[in-house]
Amino acid sequence: xxxxxxxxxxxxxxxxxxxxxxxxxxxxxxxxxxxxxxxxxxxxxxxxxxxxxxxxxxxxxxxxxxxxxxxxxxxxxxxxxxxxxxxxxxxxxxxxxxxxxxxxxxxxxxxxxxxxxxxxxxxxxxxxxxxxxxxxxxxxxxxxxxxxxxxxxxxxxxxxxxxxxxxxxxxxxxxxxxxxxxxxxxxxxxxxxxxxxxxxxxxxxxxxxxxxxxxxxxxxxxxxxxxxxxxxxxxxxxxxxxxxxxxxxxxxxxxxxxxxxxxxxxxxxxxxxxxxxxxxxxxxxxxxxxxxxxxxxxxxxxxxxxxxxxxxxxxxxxxxxxxxxxxxxxxxxxxxxxxxxxxxxxxxxxxxxx
Length: 354
Fold this sequence. Notes:
Elements lengths: L1 H10 L5 H23 L4 H11 L2 H20 L11 H4 L30 H10 L4 H13 L3 H5 L6 E2 L4 E4 L1 E4 L4 E4 L11 E4 L5 H7 L21 H9 L7 H7 L11 H13 L4 H8 L7 H11 L8 H35 L1
Antiparallel strand pairs: 1-2, 2-5, 3-4
Helix pairs in contact: 1-4, 2-3, 7-9, 7-12, 12-13, 13-14
């Protein structure tokens, strides 16, 4: 409430007296107090979810937007390191959180996935993973997100039946919605078409070894579980990543230690994978889009054609390495054809002499 109160004092001189009294001093402040009292928490996600379920949505959307501005002001004043409400107002639809149908399940925006300022570099990824090695369930979950670029809900919903060891691939075909607590099929970037994404799982590669290190369950069991063996909650993950009052958080701690220079939201593990593939490894964006589903596919057939090509590529190697492998394969094929032709010529010559 302190950050909110400071913000209200700053903007008060620029508002009409009646606007400030009715909207800020009364409605917004009462909304916020009720959310904190009801959730017994000042966690941003819990506050946002409670408001969406219990208060007028247009007003909630405005309040969340102002809370984000309040935190940005606090960042400038060096009172906090990051804005926990960043982007939340954009996610709020006119429909309530309850009673959503499949097409209305929230998915995080991919509008800026190619913005390198919204991504960590691969050295910073190593620093983040090293810092959570002592808690393997978080290490496994976060590493999977970095290695695949999946959305948080997709990582939570990932099941053992989605791992195809023999085919050396995994399937991304469902997501978990934190509000409805239900599983839904994955969608294309525009959210208008269900799609199953295929992602390479090179044998003995980093992703392969990560999944092999986790005790395998039944096909319908989730792969990544909480410390107590239950489904991972997005709100809990956010708290572990960002921290709250009384919880220091992975990223703020690394910033304090001077090991990282900026705070990025948990969703930006996706930005990190995509920018790493395209800018660091030189991967064709269409290939990365087939893996991550962040680009607009014009049709299922178009997606399938690109997906088939993408499955022939090892995401853990630079694009030039794949090209070299292709060229080497073609050279080896030519050599084999020449060898067979030479054997045929030798046989014909031998038959002639006999």
